[in-house]
């Protein structure tokens, strides 16, 4: 029997003050003209930015209906991959967009994964001091995370995401069908953020994901759609509470202090962001055990309260081997002398659904978390 189609799901509201709230819709890309109209955007020139992999697969599914509704869509594609989050590609987008005779009412539609969303989102934030932005996310990471919350930006030689702006979209349209063509490695990598959201949300979310993960990994439509919606809804709720990361939103960085160091020390591109996050989550759980114990956790097994979280993260079939030496990972974290005087802040869990941010970790606990990550990386079952 063919898999049953995913049931239609209600939009998720990102409730922001000052009339800036918006909806995340889970509908076919063909619905984009109706949703633009609903968001008060009248037909005219529309800028569509995609990448070279997503464009051939999905562009016409949005462009045809836009034309039929009276829009004049102009499209461009950047090369696929993290390297496109660059000043060079941003400048190319500026040249392209400004050559089309846009005005402040011209929407920019970002069709693709997190790279396109971050790059095109930053172009939208800065062109004419701000164009209406519409996210059309096509990867798991983009649908549950990057298209929700308004962070846009590009990379700099000094580090990832160092140049950017908060620019909230007018709407997000996440078509569940686009995920069917996502390469397996990117699909699984994106699930690391889904696991992270569940650990932060609490026991009920973890129980649900534990029950659904097998079907999600098989991309069973109903299970996948429900999981994506719940993870996006969690992000939306956190963003609504703390739009600019003055407090609560920082918990979304669970595992990310480790993950960013892994990406940097291993060399960008060797592991995907999601693979680094999956491993970073396991390091963060070990650190949580040390913080809770008030000493470096040396027992081979994690304390009972973290075992369930660790098991869930371990179920992601990702190639995890960590090859960079611990000194390189610590240096990449900023614990080297360049950062003397500043204290790193870590997101730790007190329990499922109870994250907190702390600079106070027992001496040696971060090193021990890296050792743990290295050990479990070796043990993770290959796909
Ligand atoms: N702004 C935020 O809040 C935020 C949050 C999380 C991650 N991010 C950023 O997101 C990026 C990672 O996102 P990503 O994993 O989506 O990366 P990505 O955009 O590079 O997409 C991964 C790969 O999948 C391809 N792809 C995307 N959708 C596809 C589809 N439907 N079919 C076939 N191929 C498809 C892309 O072309 C690319 O090769 C990083 O740059 C990260 O910093 C931003």
Notable characteristics:
383 residues, alpha/beta, seven-stranded mixed beta sheet, two-stranded antiparallel sheet, globular, binds nicotinamide-adenine-dinucleotide
The shape, in one word, is: globular
Strand content: 15-25%
Please trace the helix and strand order, writing H or E for each element. Answer: EEHEHEHEHEHEEEHHHHHHHEEH
* Helix-residue proportion: 40-55%
Strand order of the largest sheet: 1-2-9-6-5-3-4
| Largest sheet geometry | 7 strands, mixed
Query: Could you tell me the mean pLDDT?
Result: 93
How many strands?
11
Instruction: Determine the structural class based on helices, strands and strand pairing.
Output: alpha/beta
Bound molecules: nicotinamide-adenine-dinucleotide
Low-confidence stretches: 336-340
Describe this structure in words.
This protein is α/β, with parallel strands linked by helices. The chain contains 13 helices and eleven strands. The two termini are 26 Å apart. The chain binds nicotinamide-adenine-dinucleotide (NAD). Nicotinamide-adenine-dinucleotide binds next to α2, α4, α5 and α6.
């Amino acid at each position: 029997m063919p898999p049953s189609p995913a049931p239609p799901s209600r939009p998720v509201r990102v409730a922001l003050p000052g009339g800036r709230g918006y909806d995340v819709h889970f509908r076919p890309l063909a619905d984009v003209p109706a949703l633009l109209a609903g968001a008060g955007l009248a037909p005219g020139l529309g800028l569509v930015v995609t990448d070279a992999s997503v464009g051939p697969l999905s562009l016409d599914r949005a462009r045809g209906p836009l034309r039929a509704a009276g829009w004049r869509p102009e499209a461009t594609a950047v090369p696929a991959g993290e390297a496109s989050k660059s000043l060079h590609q941003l400048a190319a987008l500026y040249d392209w967009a400004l050559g089309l005779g846009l005005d402040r009412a011209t929407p920019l539609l970002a069709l693709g994964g997190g790279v396109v969303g971050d790059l095109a989102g930053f172009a939208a934030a800065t062109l004419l001091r701000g164009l209406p932005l519409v996210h059309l996310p096509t990867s798991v990471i983009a649908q549950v995370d990057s298209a929700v919350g308004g962070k846009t930006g590009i990379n700099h030689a000094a580090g990832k995401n160092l140049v950017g702006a908060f620019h909230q979209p007018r709407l997000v349209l996440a078509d569940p069908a686009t995920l069917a063509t996502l390469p397996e490695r990117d699909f699984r990598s994106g699930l690391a953020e889904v696991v992270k959201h569940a650990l932060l949300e609490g026991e009920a979310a973890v129980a649900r994901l534990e029950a659904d993960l097998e079907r999600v990994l098989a991309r069973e439509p109903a299970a996948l759609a429900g999981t994506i919606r719940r993870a996006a809804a969690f992000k939306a709720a956190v963003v609504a509470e703390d739009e600019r990361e003055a407090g609560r939103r920082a918990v979304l960085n669970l595992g990310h202090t480790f993950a960013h160091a892994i990406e940097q020390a291993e060399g960008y591109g060797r592991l995907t962001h999601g693979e680094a996050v999956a491993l970073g989550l396991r390091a963060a759980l070990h650190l949580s055990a040390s913080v809770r114990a008030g000493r470096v956790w040396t027992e081979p097994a994690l304390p009972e309260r973290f075992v369930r979280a660790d098991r869930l993260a371990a179920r992601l079939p990702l190639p995890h081997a960590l090859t960079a030496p611990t000194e390189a990972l610590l240096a990449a974290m900023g614990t080297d002398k360049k950062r003397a005087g500043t204290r790193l802040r870590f997101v730790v869990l007190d329990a499922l659904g109870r994250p907190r941010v702390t600079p106070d970790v027992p001496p040696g606990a971060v090193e021990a978390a890296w050792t743990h990550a290295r050990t479990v990386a070796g043990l993770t079952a290959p796909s």
